[in-house]
Amino acid sequence: MLEPTNNDELPEIPGKRYFTIGEVSELCAVKPHVLRYWEQEFPQLKPVKRRGNRRYYQRQDVLTIRQIRALLYEQGFTIGGARLKMNDDPEEKQGSEEFQALVRKMISELEELLITLER
Does the 1-88 domain belong in CATH 1.10.1660.10? Predict the structure, then answer.
């Protein structure tokens, strides 16, 4: 996942489990109506909704919002371009390929161990 370049300028994310839209607005320097709009445009952004449709964002949501903000406001992406960039992150793909290679290696080692134990 991309690391937002503006992390130094934005306040540190507190160690809470859930954040209201107002808190996220302050943490990410984005107005609440923009956050609601981004929820419609970015499928990765799905806050938990509770009583009266109140939104509660988790830490990962805040990081995703900061990533979206960096793409749009700092790197000059359009909404569509930022959506594609987030769906097609090469770092994420590389991590996925590394994970799959590790899983294959572990399966191979476990099969060898099984053969050894059967003897």
Answer: yes
Cα 26 → chain centroid:
18
Q: What is the pLDDT of residues 55-111, one digit of tens each?
A: 999 999 999 999 999 999 999 999 999 988 888 755 555 556 777 788 888 888 888
Among candidate residues 88, 81, 97, the one with its CA nearest the CA of residue 2: 88
CA distances from 1 to 60, 92, 118 (A): 11, 6, 43
Q: Show the beta-strand stretches assigned E in the chain.
A: 48-50, 54-56
The secondary element (H helix, E strand) that includes residue 15 is none
Asked if 74 and 55 touch (Cβ cutoff 8 Å), the reply is no
User: In the chain, what is the greatest distance between 2 CA atoms, to the nearest angstrom?
Assistant: 66
